Amino acid sequence: MTDFRNEPFLELRRAHERDRLIAALDAFDAAPPIEVPVIVGGERRVDPTAASVDPGMPDRVVAAATTATPAEVDAAVEAAGAAARVWGGMPAAERAAILARAAGELRSRRYELAALAVRECAKPWVEADIDVCEAIDFLEYYSRRAVLLDAGPELIQLPGERNTLHYRPRGVSAVIAPWNFPIAIATGMTAAGLATGNAVCLKPAEQSPACAFALVEALERAGVPAGAIALLPGEGDVGAALADHPGVHTIAFTGSGAVGLEILRRAAEPRDGRRHLKRVVAEMGGKNCLIVDADADLDDVVPAVLASAFGFAGQKCSAASRVLVHERVADVLSERLRGSLETLLVGQAETFGTDVPPLIEGASRDRVERVVAEAVQAGAEAERVRRLPDGDGFFSAPTVVFGAPPESFVVREEIFGPVVTVEPVASVDAACDIVDAQAHALTGGLFSRNPRTIAAVARRTPVGNLYVNRGTTGSMVGRQPFGGNRLSGTGTKAGGPDYLLHFVEPVVVTENTVRHGLAP
Fold it and tell me: Which of 131, 153, 234, 386 counts the highest number of beta carbons within 10 A?
């Protein structure tokens, strides 16, 4: 793994890089909406029935997607089952080479793909470029890890016997991907399945079918055989049919807790003559707390809170949504956060420097506005950015909520929008008690200059990723494997050395090597 390096981000301070991105966006806007097909066994059906739109200008159609039928879900799983036997039988190094070529395909189209993420999901340029880079990283990292995994671990050997352990693919992986990292997360789950020799049926979020289509095109061009990758656009019923299918062996899901828990429940029930237990890899969000100790450097805390809570309008499962600040510095931090809100640029994703783009859809914006209104009605104070763009975009003002009742929705539940609460606490231990009482345990943050405090919090926190003296978002493949505990998710961490184990089954062969002659 010494040859793996994270894909470098674009240096957007350089004019020529910005010019290339603008040119890619202009070319994208000049073209007609992308027609996203259903792809089954290498065959494409194009009959658009659903549209994805630009959240900043909902009248602009980005893609017209064909909705997969139940028959096509069946056909995709059947084709994947047949293809998995061929794909899984290839040497791991050959599969890795194909995935590395797919990474090259994404790399060669990075400006075009970033423009697509800007339009289809309103990702600001920095976020869009990071999304493409992370997708490249997943392909490169998992392809290398799969080769290492294929070699198998060393077992204890005794005279007269030979023991080997190897991993074989499970079969068909269903990937149900989200819209907030429309290229990166879809690529990560898909690449893990393919790298380990499984065939993959990909169901993208209905808000981002074109981003998933771009990934499938890259995989096809790189040499992933027909049938080993299927694209099944549609609403939640398509994902449910795919996850329920008896021919699916592994389900990789990123999305809401309600959907993830239902998938886990149904996967645990052997039905339809199934002869295997389905394995579910689920990432289901969080309610992430950032603890600020009395000795914290507030010059570091304020920008970290702004970036962690409001970057991409808070539409990240890792976003900070509760600031638990020591009461000795609570008033000072609160005042600084109030003053800093107006430094945030709320605007269209295509505008360089935008901090807070529109939310993904109108329903999301309405939910956020309702949550803030209910908090105010319950006695809280809401400090909000006053300047919002004109037009019909799904914008919601970045909001800091003070004095919300402990049992209120804004304090207890994931918002998935640009809202953060500030809550004074008597001590870091009291803050840890609050974190420990939560059902979710995805990310957490701590600002402290005391090594003992840092060590104590690291020992007791239930979260999967603790970020110390930095923001709570922005994990890197291979450097900060990502994933939560409790109701935030199942399994080991994406972008880490153990993730591929979800997609394989171990097989041990023990041979008696004391021979009494060999048969001719």
Answer: 131
Contacts of 141 (CB under 8 A, 6+ apart): 1, 4, 477, 478, 495
Give the span between the Cα atoms of 76 and 67, in whole angstroms: 13
* Runs of H (alpha helix) within 61-109: 70-89, 92-108
Q: Give yes or no: 140 in active site.
A: no
Q: Is residue 111 over pLDDT 60?
A: yes
Q: Is 317 a catalytic residue?
A: yes
Question: What confidence tens digit (pLDDT) does each residue in 480-492 have?
Answer: 999 999 999 997 8
Domains of the chain: 18-284+489-507 (3.40.605.10), 288-468 (3.40.309.10)
Query: In angstroms, rounded to a whole number, what is the distance separating the alpha carbons of residues 407 and 414?
Result: 13
User: Would strands 38-40 and 43-45 be described as parallel, antiparallel, or unpaired?
Assistant: antiparallel
Report the pLDDT averaged over residues 171-179. 98
> Which residue reads 């010019």 in tokens?
19
Distance CA 2, CA 186 (A): 25
Instruction: State the Cα angle at 5 between 133 and 491, rounded to 5°.
Output: 75
Token pair, residue 398, equals 């970045």
Cβ neighbours, 10 Å, residue 426: 11
Secondary structure in 3-state letters for 446-480: EECCCHHHHHHHHHHCCCCEEEECCCCCCCCCCCC
* Terminal alpha carbon distance of the chain: 43
Give the integer Cα–Cα distance in Å for 89 and 515: 30
Contact 509, 163 (CB under 8 A): yes
Tokens at 496, concatenated: 């880490």
Q: What is the CA radius of gyration of the chain?
A: 24
Please compute the mean of the pLDDT values over residues 74-103 and round it to a whole number: 98
Alpha helices in 122-183 (DSSP H): 125-151
Q: Which residues pair with 173 in a beta bridge?
A: 200, 250
What's the 3-state SS for 411-422?
A: HHCCCCCCEEEE
0.85 exceeded by the pTM? yes
Task: Kindly name the residue from 7, 120, 134, 283 that is annotated as catalytic.
Answer: 283
